[in-house]
Give the backbone structure.
Amino acid sequence: MVFTAGDTDVLLDRTPIQGEPKGVSWGGYAGFSLRLAPALKTWNFVGSSGPENKSSAQGKWMTFSCALVAPASLPAGGQTGAIVVLDHPKSFRHPTTWYLVKGMPYFSPAVLYASPYTLPAKQSITLKYRVLFQPSAVDAGAVEQEWQKFGGE
């Protein structure tokens, strides 16, 4: 995704995060996001720096995984699955900050998490992600190899 400002500067803003003036617990995110079924609340986040239990983490990739919830009539019930999002090294503000909400469940590469950004007139920013779906538990080594292939394009 490439975003280009027109003839004037464009402020890319977000709701302030906790600790900032008027900050809230749900501030700091915007853009590409994954919001999943409430039945997946037992899933876990694992990023390029390891397991994540906070509401934000910085890294070059993030995974969301656990046992799949499916009716007994479907073969996926009880198996493990994962969603992997890779952040390309040429993406704006790489490595990104990830906004993580296990209780929804929801996650997003949140390039505006730390601060708003003014995109100068006629300038562009690029956001490039790869989304992978795995029918298995997260193997951090394998995800890292996928990121290396993706980042080396």
Notes: Residues 140-151 form the longest helix (12 residues).
